[in-house]
Structure formats: C-alpha cells, structure tokens
Amino acid sequence: MTVRDIENILLTWAPKEIAWEHDTVGVQCGSSRDRVRGVLVCLDATRAVAAQASRRRADLIVSHHPPLFRPLTSLTPDSRAGALMRELVERRIALIAMHTNLDFARGGTSFALAGALGLVHPEFLSMPYRLQQKVVTYVPRAHADRVAAAMAAEGAGGIGNYDNCSFRTVGTGTFRGNQASRPRVGQPGRIEHVEEVRLEMIAPQHLVDRVVRAMKRAHPYEEVAYDVYALQNRSADYGMGVIGTLERPVRLAAFLGRVRRALAIPHLRHTGDPRRLVRRVAVCGGSGADLLETAIGRSADVFVTADVKYHHFQESEGRIALVDAGHYETEVPVVGAVVRYLRREVARRGSTLRVTATSIVTHKIQYA
Q: Collapsing DSSP states into helix, strand and coil, what is residue 43?
C-alpha cells in the first residue's frame, strides 16, 4: 500500500471537508506515492516518536495533532517543527495528520472518549454540518439497478444503518441528437420519446464527484443528464462532542473517580456537588468548552472536556457539573480507535500492513 492509499482510507472516515477552516490535515511530509511497510499512530508527532517508528520499521506516522499548523516563515532545525521534519526526511518517514476532521467524525475523538468512560448509546452533542447532496439522473428502466449499484459502490444512498437507498419515479424522457451523435435509442435528427426512471440518491459532499463518475460509467447513454442539489439536511455522520448515558446513575464523586482511572489522571478540575447523582454525560475530547451551553441544553448532568477557562466554570455553577480532564488525556483514547480502524480496513483490502500505536507519552504537563 502507498501513503495515498492510507490517506484515502482515513479521509473516507473523516473527510477534509469537515475540518475547521485553515486546519492542516492530510499528508504533511513525504510523497503520496511512497510504499508503506508499517504505520505508527500517535497523538503528537515528536522526534522520539519518529525514532520509535524507525525502530519498528514503520515508514508512515499518523498523528492527530499536525506538526505544521500555523503559517511558517522558516523551517530550520532550531524550531520544534523544523527539527521534526528534518528527522522525518532523514529517516524517510511520511506523516499524515488527522486533526479536527477526526474530532468531528462519528467514531472519532469524542466517541473514543465516551467509550473510555463507559457511556452507552452515544450520539453527537451538536450536529451543525449540512454536507448532504442529492444526485439525480434519468436512465432507462432496464438499466436503473445497474446505475444505482454503481453509485452506491462509491458512497451514495447511505441513510443511517441502511445503504443502497434510492427513490425512483417513471416518466418520459425526450431528446434529439445531431448528426454527430450516436444515440443508444433512436436515430440522429429525430425526436425520441423514451420511458425512463428518475433515479435519486443522496451522497456526502466529498463523495459526489466519485458518485457522478461511477454513474456516467454505468449509464447506457452517450450524454448523461443529471442534477446535483445541495441539501439542508443535517449530516448524521459528522458533528461535535458526544452525549450518552451511564449504565446506572452514580454520585458525581464516584464518576470523577471513574474519569481519573479511565484516563490515568491524578487530579481533575471540576465544579458540582460531589453528592449529586449523574447519568446523562456530555463529552468533548480536547478544547470543547464552547459546547457548554449545548450540553446544558441537552440536559446533561456533567460535561467532560479540556482547556476550560475560569469563566466557563463560573457559567456552569448550579446548571451542570463541569470537568476539565486535560487536553492530552481526553484525546489520547482516539489513538486506539485509529489503530483499530486502519487494521480493519487494510485487512479488508487483503494487506498485511502492520499498524501499531506509539508507546511514547508525549504529555508534558506534570502534577505536583
């Protein structure tokens, strides 16, 4: 497999289109054409992680945090990013960053955190994305199944737990080809009337071009009539944060103990009455305090996130228990999720590519 193959697998899960504006996701170092023998997954790419990748004969690192994030004015070994890039180039290791696109994908950062805390029935806390589009084409009835199958193979027709979803209506199509045309039905220069099916399927925005290409390849006509409509439907596969429930209600004090054990944290910053019963839990891996009001509006008893400011704690008083569990700690569970996803997908493609998680702790904050 190549670097591009791995990037495509990852972006199918968490497309670039859902990343925050100006975020840098995708290949940051190396050639997309390079062959890959092994993949090392980490939260932060560091020189120590690069050295471990080399020892494990992994020539690709998948990092959650992108080393190249802010606009660079120079790239020298004197800077952290420059030193890392030099290390990667010298060791011939490529790097792919999966940042806010992974944060906002189903099964991504916040879902991994929810799983680590034992939440059941997790769903997105906020679903602001409207990325669905509808692809419509007109095809002779005998070819409708073939065209629909080709579109579905490229990602059209997915609705929740269902795939190959389409809607079809029968009507009459008319056309007249010029003398240079080679119509499948009728003759050039004559108006033809053909019974056709109007075939409609939805698709995520980032897959529409692929769906249209597949539709054209499977379509019997020389010139294919089709429409693409932008929809206002909220995308079910992309969102921010997660809300779920505990199997049984527990006191806040007991829940805080669960958070410390699950994320290996010696201390937490939090608000709330330790005696209060909690069951409905909102989480957001990394800096998610901006979702505080959303968590309150969704009737969460407690909200677990990181990088919480002083005023956020004040705003939460008497309304919700707010827990700052640390940026690294709330995001690191996603490393295991990426490893499992890549292992499954490369195996499905018949590859024996090795995918492992780094054992290096890149967390630099210490507790006294």
A: strand
Residue 185 banded pLDDT, cuts 50, 70, 90: confident
Whether the CB-CB separation of 99 and 202 falls below 8 Å is answered with no
- Spatial CA neighbour of 53 closest among 8, 98, 88: 88
90 and 148 together in one domain: no
Does residue 275 share a domain with residue 205? no
Asked whether residue 203 falls in the same domain as residue 151, the answer is yes
DSSP assignment of 185-252, as one string?
SS-TTS-EEEEEEEEEEEEEGGGHHHHHHHHHHH--SSS--EEEEE--PPPTTB-EEEEEEEEEEEEH
Residue at a domain's end among 230, 247, 276: 230
Q: What percent of the chain has pLDDT over 90?
A: 85
Asked whether residue 35 falls in the same domain as residue 123, the answer is no
Residue that terminates a domain, selected from 188, 203, 230: 230
- The CATH number given to whatever domain includes residue 311 is 3.40.1390.30
Residue pair 124/242 in contact by the 8 Å Cβ criterion: yes
> DSSP 3-state assignment of 289?
helix
How many alpha carbons fall within 13 Å on the CB side of residue 112?
23
28, 68 contact by CB (below 8 A): yes
The H or E element containing residue 173 is: strand 167-175
CA 186/CA 234 separation, integer angstroms: 43
Q: Which domain holds residue 17?
A: 3-99+332-357
Q: Convert the pLDDT of each residue in 309-356 to its tens digit.
A: 999 999 999 999 999 999 999 999 999 999 999 999 999 999 999 999
Measured distance CA(25)–CA(68) in Å, rounded: 9
Tell whether 146 and 66 lie within a shared domain: no
Q: Which two tokens stand for residue 21?
A: 């504006």
Amino acid identity of 145? D
- Partnered with residue 62 across adjacent β-strands are 41, 96
